[in-house]
Write a structure and sequence with these properties.
By secondary structure, the chain is α+β, with helices and mostly antiparallel strands. Helices cover 20% and strands 31% of the residues. The strands form seven sheets. Strands 6, 7, 8, 9, 11, 12, 14, 15, 19 and 20 form a ten-stranded antiparallel sheet that branches. Strand 2 (12-17) and strand 3 (21-27) form a beta hairpin. Helix 7 (457-473) runs parallel beside helix 8 and helix 10 (553-563) packs parallel to helix 11 (590-597). The longest helix has 23 residues, at 613-635. It is globular and about 85 Å long. The two termini are 40 Å apart. The chain binds alpha-D-galactopyranose. The site of alpha-D-galactopyranose has 12 residues, from loops.
Length: 742
């Protein structure tokens, strides 16, 4: 059992135990939930450990508020380490809960329950699965004055070293209460010498990691854009100062939520870090009628003593095994060709078939028709909402096209942007009231679009019916579900303003569940102008996300490196596009573009009918080579190797079958002395056959220089470092295949 109930000095205590991690929770002298430890395993923790870790308060510093002087004369909530906290009783740090019109919310122990398995979030909230060794602790606290009960839910997926947190607030009195904040997670962690890493960015530059020392005060990241956003990913890492990929303690939280969110890291003068994760409280006001309850989304948490790499490995396994839809867990993803950068809006039936035929000839398994196939959409100003075939481009209809493509022995995939509506659309003309707006204000446009009101059940029913109808009308095995605008003018006649953002995101989940739940074999890749909504909530419905509209491999190295902190390669849609890049105008070798996209769910996004013979042959070889190694690329253990210098990026992925490393040299340094690739962590004495790839699968310059491209090596030699060929030119990547011999 992953959860052990113990006796603490003041009441019950609990040890949440995974092979490498322990949480020790205890009820404090006044009934608050204290966090005594979150970090390395305590082994078989006992009552003695609880007592040893329980803080002693021999005296009270002069001005500190003592919550209950009669019961606990020296006990101050502001000085203890808590796993939950409300305002108004002497803890001035960021609270987990707030109630409108109330300056005090004081939740104290009532009861607890330990259950086998997962106690998941109520639908339509997404919920993580557990493993064979999963148990759930529910600690119920109550504020008797306000008539509120609060369940603090801890699900321990022990075999995955992950604890999932969630909070439920229940109104047990006979008047309505308005909740203005409800966090999924609160934890106080002793904080000497800690750093925070966040993934921040914007369109085309998503998920750039930023690392900073935590000093007294609050570092917060969040989104009020309506989506989880490219500006700040909801996942956050805290680590020891100086932690590396392989050394140092590191903790992570990530929210299973795709809407507004906020994470606050508040370091107090006592060098304790208050860590709060949840929906963003800005504008949030949720009315809880008597008897009603409100559940936060889930927050996934992990700890590793093995540095940032160890933390990523834990999170990757959990996402692959317990977050993405069951039908797609550890299931290899098809190599696809997407039409967007190859033909944008200009295509017709014949041209799509031609492109699909060429793609099939190169080894593609799926052809995806992107934007522009519906209504009268020839640019991005019209037709969102009218999900019927464009009569001019596809006069024979969608089914005829899909069937012809499928007849070429590739799957057929289709783009949608269901959450938006164009003012120039039949849907908008029929239902102007279905667009999000605040009465009396003209709603603003973004990419010429309005937002559909997913708070409104009629809108949701319409989408479920129309999208389901399209999917059932033709052999469509993949959907790219896009969303190209942030929220503005947030209002719906169906709910108060303070409930809009949460209800809208729940509405999105409801539609996704109803469209894809009955069609689990349709591969769903979500997208929001690229990676504007790369989060665990979307991954619970679709196992991969288009990581960025930037297909330039140099920028993509940064994006995928950043995302890899929290998300496995299988989740990152990654495409080889044309050179020069449509986003940066940078010229890069085809092999470099492949070497980046291969560390994800590989696709191509260029015109396959316009390739030179050499490029076509190279792509055919790349796809065949990738397919043989696909399981390793998508589901192996991915690690960021520490680059010896800043102009390099190195990654490796390995499983029992093989390892594949890549060395990306971004710029040629002056006086380049050569490059080494250090691949630690393989079987030390195991013999491997090492093959270094170069442009077009060969390395002619290296051959000329006499560098061997294929040779046997042991795991210990690989850990010492391989010498790589010196090739001139910027943006050169070398993939290195490391296959066990014998
Ligand atoms: C968004 C997506 C792109 C593409 C276009 C189509 O920008 O991120 O991949 O689908 O929309 O309009």
């Amino acid at each position: 059992m992953a959860i052990h109930t113990l006796n603490g000095p003041h009441g019950p205590a609990w040890h949440l135990a995974t092979p490498t991690t322990s949480w020790l929770l205890a009820i404090g002298p006044l009934g608050h939930l204290e966090l005594l430890h979150w970090g390395p395993t305590l082994g078989q923790a006992s009552d003695v450990d609880v007592a040893a870790l329980t803080p002693q308060w021999p005296y009270t510093p002069g001005v500190v508020v003592v919550a209950d002087e009669a019961a606990a004369p020296t006990y101050s909530l502001g000085r203890t380490t808590l796993a939950w906290s409300g305002p108004g009783k002497g803890d001035y740090r960021e609270p987990g809960v707030e109630v409108a019109g109330e300056n005090v919310v004081d939740l104290r122990y009532v009861r607890h329950e330990v259950l086998e398995g997962v106690v998941g979030a109520p639908a339509p909230l997404p919920s993580c699965d557990g493993d064979d060794d999963t148990a759930t602790l529910v600690v119920t606290l109550a504020d008797e004055v306000l008539g509120l009960e609060c369940d603090l839910v801890f699900t321990v997926a022990a075999a995955h070293d992950v604890v999932v947190r969630r909070t439920v607030l229940r109104n047990v009195c006979d008047v309505a209460r308005t909740v203005t904040r409800l966090a999924a997670f609160v934890a106080d962690v002793p904080g000497v010498g800690l750093e925070a890493i966040t993934l921040d960015g914007e369109w085309l530059r998503e998920a750039h990691p930023h690392r900073r020392a935590l000093e007294p005060g609050t570092v917060s990241i969040g989104s009020v854009t309506g989506g989880s956003s490219a500006e700040h990913n909801p996942g956050v890492v805290v680590c020891e100062r100086g932690a590396t990929e392989t050394h140092g303690r590191a903790w992570a939280t990530n929210l299973v939520w795709s809407g507004n969110h906020r994470t606050a890291l508040e370091l107090s003068w006592t060098q304790t870090l208050r860590w709060v994760v949840g929906e963003h409280p800005q504008g949030f006001a949720w009315e809880l009628a008597p008897g009603d309850e409100l559940s936060s989304p889930e927050a996934v948490t992990a700890y590793s003593a093995g540095g940032l790499g160890g933390l990523s490995t834990t999170l990757h396994r959990f996402v692959d095994d317990c977050v993405v839809p069951a039908a797609w867990r550890r299931r290899e993803r098809p190599v696809l060709f997407n039409s967007w950068e190859g033909s944008y809006f200009s295509f017709d039936h014949g041209r799509v078939v031609e492109m699909a035929r060429a793609a099939a000839g190169l080894g593609a398994e799926l052809f995806v028709l992107d934007d522009g196939w519906f209504g009268h959409r020839d640019d991005d100003t019209t037709s969102l909402g009218d999900w019927t075939a464009h009569a001019g481009k596809l006069p024979d209809g969608l089914a005829a096209l899909a069937e012809e493509v499928v007849g070429l022995d590739v799957g057929f995939g289709l783009w949608f942007e269901p959450e938006a509506v164009s003012p120039d659309s039949d849907l908008y003309r029929a239902h102007p009231d279905w667009a999000v707006r605040v009465p009396g204000r003209e709603p603003s446009l973004a990419r010429h679009e309005l937002l559909l009101d997913l708070c409104n059940p009629d809108v949701r029913d319409h989408l479920v019916e129309v999208l389901g109808g399209v999917l059932d009308s033709a052999p469509i095995s993949y959907v790219k579900w896009d969303m190209n605008r942030k929220h503005s003018d947030a209002g719906s006649p169906t709910c108060p303003a303070g409930e809009f953002h949460r209800r809208w995101t729940l509405g999105l989940y409801d539609v996704l569940a109803r469209v894809f739940g009955p069609r689990p074999e349709v591969l769903l890749e979500t997208c929001s102008s690229g990676g504007n909504r790369f989060d665990l909530g979307m991954l619970a419905f679709g196992p991969q996300i288009w990581a960025s509209d930037c297909t330039d491999p140099v920028e993509r190295q940064d994006i995928q490196t950043g995302l890899s902190l929290l998300y496995p390669p299988s989740t990152m849609g990654a495409h080889v596009a044309a050179s020069p890049s449509h986003q940066t105008a940078r010229h890069t070798p085809l092999e470099t573009r492949f070497a980046v996209a291969a560390f994800g769910a590989l696709g191509y996004e260029l015109d396959p009918t316009a390739l030179s013979d050499d490029d076509a042959a190279a792509i055919r070889e790349q796809i065949a080579w990738y397919k043989e190694r696909r399981a390793t690329f998508q589901f192996g253990r991915f690690r960021r190797l520490e680059p010896p210098q800043g102009f390099l990026r190195q990654w490796v992925v390995d499983d029992d079958a093989r390892a594949i490393a890549v060395h990306h040299r971004r710029l040629v340094p002056a006086a380049d002395l050569g490059h080494r690739l250090v691949v630690p962590g393989l079987g030390a004495e195991r013999p491997y056959l090492v093959t270094i790839r170069g442009e077009g699968g060969t390395t002619s310059a290296a051959e000329l220089a006499g560098v061997p491209l294929q040779f046997p090596a042991s795991g210990s030699l690989l850990a010492a470092g391989l010498s790589l060929p010196l090739e001139m030119g910027d943006h050169v990547s070398h993939l290195v295949d490391i296959a066990p011999l014998g």
